[in-house]
Amino acid sequence: MDPIRNPYAPGAGQRPPELAGRDEQLTAFDVVLERVQRGRPERSLLLIGLRGVGKTVLLNALRSAAVRAGWGTGKLEARPDQRLRRPLASALHQAVRELGQSGGRHDDVLGVIRAFAERDSGAGAKLREKWNPGITATATKGRADSGDIEIDLLELLTDVGGYAADTGRGIALFIDEMQDLGPEDVSALCAACHEMGQAGLPVIVVGAGLPHLPAVLSASKSYSERLFRYARIDRLDSVAMELALSAPAEEEDAEWSPDALSAMYAVTGGYPYFVQAYGKAVWDRAPRSPITAEDVTVGAPEAEAELAVGFFGSRYERATPAEREYLRAMAEASYLRSEGAPDGADAAYTSVLETELDSVPTAEVARILGKKPQSLSPARDALLKKGLIYSAERGQIAFTVPHFGRYLRDHA
């Protein structure tokens, strides 16, 4: 097969040639946009799931839908070492610019955004330490500049939302890696969303994060579960995965045999990133169309080798020796718990089962390592902060990356 015409695109946040299996979320979001624009009450949206399931791709697709609807949009990626003010100000600056107005109220709103951003510099900051948000309007005094992020964010979004309502459109703020927001920023964002909903202003937040994001929000505000509509983004079913592979191939006058598609589901488990990675490798190795199950067998090791370095290995290398020991113990605990698989379970079933059993008790990890659970808390907490594991419920931990346990057992 011609590698130049290879249609598959493995990459972080890179949209695949066929966005399969996400029609439900896209359709529902179109309804949300229309309802909010008409003044109907709607909750903001959160996409939650493991890494590699396409949350960022879907987040970008939803933003494109908002742009098509004439909304002002802005996007930011949360980071553990960064406060919310500056990236949020940049995102809202972009959103207000997309509304396409100028002068008068438009400049007043930009002045509030600038005041909100510049408050991050702190009192007494020197000129070279002050961040310039790229806004020429004069910073507004006494609005969104108190230094209390909860008060300031509410005032900011109230003004931005009021301006959007005057234009007859809305503002959509997209936040990736939302679980990495600091506690104060999470609390402020929840409070602001609560007020926006009560005021009926056309402002919505669309966030994406790891499976423990609901717990992060709940720890901040007890009412957070009522503020957002949660959409769990998971692996593709076999029909959606076949479409993700077949539709791009047809555009290049090629096809996959039914046996090849079954083999691909077995090795990828339906995870979108794996589908693209294996699809690219198998295409390059296949001598001709249709692509066969034998071609999958030949091309799979190349995809696995690339994933071992870029997808799994890069994450493993970020861990310290003590943290790697903890990860390996998690992988062993997951494997021991998965030994209950029925006899004769096929490869696809085993792949899916292994992922479901990646959630293991912290006590079991301690038992495998022969240590007290309390002594392992530093390693566990560090892995949580690095985003390599998550805890959706007390006493249970899981990998944020699908098939990470299998990688650790095979390579580490």
Automatic annotation (TrEMBL):
Source domain of life: Bacteria
Positions of the UniProt region annotated as Disordered: 1-21
Keyword Cytoplasm: no
GO terms assigned for molecular function: electron transfer activity; heme binding; metal ion binding
Keyword field: Heme, Iron, Metal-binding
Keyword Metal-binding found: yes
Domain Cytochrome c, chain residue ranges per copy: 165-331
Protein name stated in the entry: Cytochrome c domain-containing protein
Species for this entry: Phycicoccus elongatus Lp2
